[in-house]
Specification:
By secondary structure, the protein is mainly β. It has one helix and five strands. It has a domain of about 50 residues. A three-stranded antiparallel β-sheet has the order 1-2-3, with no helix packed on it. The longest helix has 6 residues. The model has no long low-confidence stretch (mean pLDDT about 75).
């Protein structure tokens, strides 16, 4: 909630922005006035939106620990580092006592 007072992308809400030259912003309301008043210009990398904002910039800090990613495929969640396929067991080898009859 406190991040709403800092500059963020008006399209996607991203806080990780790049400050760019004012000349790079090509569309918006009152462009000439915002350039004249030296409003800072920003670019959002994910959605490529370029815009002016008078809100203060708050740098986004990187996470100190890696985040575990989970891939869901066919409702079977698994971790990304589980690249080695699980061993398969033939149906007749599932119960070793049934083969000794």
């Amino acid at each position: 909630m406190s991040y709403m007072f800092y500059v963020h992308c008006p399209t996607c809400g991203n806080l990780d922005l790049q400050q760019i030259s004012r000349d790079r912003v090509e569309n918006g309301v009152l462009l000439g006035l915002q350039r004249l008043l030296l409003f800072p210009a920003y670019r959002c990398a994910p959605c490529r939106e370029r815009f002016f904002s008078i809100r203060p910039y708050h740098p986004v800090k990187a996470l100190s620990e890696p985040v575990m990613a989970v891939v869901v495929h066919n409702d079977n969640p698994r971790r990304l580092d589980d690249e080695v396929p699980a061993a398969t067991v033939p149906d007749d080898a599932a119960d070793p006592e049934s083969s000794h009859d």
